[in-house]
Amino acid sequence: MTPATGPSRSHTATLSDVARLAGVSIATASKALNGRSQVRAETRQRVIEAAERLSFRPNQLARGLIAGRTGTVGLLTSDLEGRFSIPILMGAEDAFGAGEVAVFLCDARGDAIREQHHVRALLGRRVDGLIVVGSRTDPRPSLGRELPVPVVYAYAPSDDPADLSIVPDNVDAGRISVEHLLACGRTRIAHITGDHGYLAARERAEGALAALEAAGLHLVGVPRFGSWSEGWGRTATAMLLEQHPDVDAVLCGSDQIARGVIEVLRERGHRVPDDVAVMGFDNWQVLTSGSRPLLTSVDMNLEQVGRTAAQALFGAIGGAARSGVEALPCRLAIRGSTAPLS
Amino acid sequence: MTPATGPSRSHTATLSDVARLAGVSIATASKALNGRSQVRAETRQRVIEAAERLSFRPNQLARGLIAGRTGTVGLLTSDLEGRFSIPILMGAEDAFGAGEVAVFLCDARGDAIREQHHVRALLGRRVDGLIVVGSRTDPRPSLGRELPVPVVYAYAPSDDPADLSIVPDNVDAGRISVEHLLACGRTRIAHITGDHGYLAARERAEGALAALEAAGLHLVGVPRFGSWSEGWGRTATAMLLEQHPDVDAVLCGSDQIARGVIEVLRERGHRVPDDVAVMGFDNWQVLTSGSRPLLTSVDMNLEQVGRTAAQALFGAIGGAARSGVEALPCRLAIRGSTAPLS
DNA sequence: CTGTTAGCGCATTCAA
DNA sequence: TTGAATGCGCTAACAG
Fold it and tell me: Is the pLDDT of residue B33 over 60?
């Protein structure tokens, strides 16, 4: 292999290579490529051409060293497999990706030690900020106030009110769900939902109950807490029909539960939505679109949560600090399982 | 704000701060912290304490500048929402995360332009390598041979045989599926699968047919290509039962299809698995565990694909280049929907 | 064992 | 308009 002198050198081109090829100093090359106005047009052109010939890519490490800002942020998630983290992550990636910032992804696997390890590693890489994505809406321990960069919590709020957290509004979600069922002419509404240990389950139930009360109605039975699974949806529905065969709507805590509910309703001869309307939660497409009829559900706008968190972080990096828990509205995805009573 | 001189300065501590506090030179501080042996134990101790008092984190940018390696890799995905990318990404993150390397996540949204943009940005940040994750197993355009860093393709292979690609072995997956059904005593096996435009669908069918032939059997009817949905599973099953009411097993191209198949089988009075065994594909937990009975499925070991890709990239960064398409075996997740004929 | 010097790649003074 | 010099934070070569 004869050492070539041209662009074929394996060594990635550096600014000094560009400068030499263009016959100018490093400083001038830098100015030319960065659009500084103190360069003759002809010179600038020569530099730009040289840079292209060498496929020159400015070394962001060097830039970061000088600027003190790296244009990178850390995205700390606790469960990649979880279906909540992903849309949030997409929203954040989306809000950043358009611009100049790159995202470090770290999955702590729900382990506090590993999380701390990742935080240290990210700080070592001089990220400009952190987004912490949780897998459930229960408050989580703050990373602390001592960090040298801003932090925004998404989905799972920090337990420190001095931190900024972006979460979906689950209480309101319960409310709008019930209001939709009422608008469909339903009045005997039951609620089958997930694990009572989840704040999300309790909040949605709370919102639903409040909306019923506001309408002068009561829930059919009590909220049935269980697990977030199809199996629980089936079990709970069997119990429900036994006690309240006249139910005309079931509000579910998840799409999985709703699928189980629909299955048993149909088996027992109840038509959906003619006899009983069913609503899911999460708007998980694989479940809503496979359902017969298509499943009405609540969408938590998680991508929006991610985008908002990213924008807030951006603001905080710029010095505009917010704090507290900001709850974003959910929206209905209305489909066949909740047609109006005719 | 009076300018403090101690550790309370907002400026992140630097090696020179540590050196000053410990009363040594910068070089000595560096050696002490990096475990170089040419430092007196007592001095080292003093430096370490100083570093801790200042919460010193070595600036990886500066290190990267010197070393020429940054300890970062780019993970280029085309569809974050896709259920295939995530496990692969987890596996890769896993294989890296244990060590010293951080992962840049980029979602090109299936857009070649955006992908190119991300590649440039990542190279600017001097990543040590790239993993390109596709959303289907059809070959995709190579990023080219001119890149200054190694690239490994995962799930979707590169169309350039000089590149290294890690993919699941779909042909073999079809084979072991049929062999499992045969082992369950089934002989009248049908195949309902997804879009014929997907290589994955064609390869799985190919493997299944080969295994049947090897056993001296034929498929019941022809492979029924359609879409990857529950709806297609229902439709196809209705047609299948019409033509071949004696079928005793249905091999499905996805878990969604399988769910639709089971639903219609039961509606028509066929018991699963007593009369008809059903197998899914993907081992997507939300679908397999909600199914009644629990759904046997093929797991593509995607995390393993991700891990292998990461390890291969690691090797390539170290100079050990492989190439070609490496197919990793799939495995069966056997559950109630495929019990043996009694 | 410790400190001085040089330089990674770049942007930014300041002179020329 | 251009270029030489300085330094971002750190490591690695040397000299003491």
Answer: yes
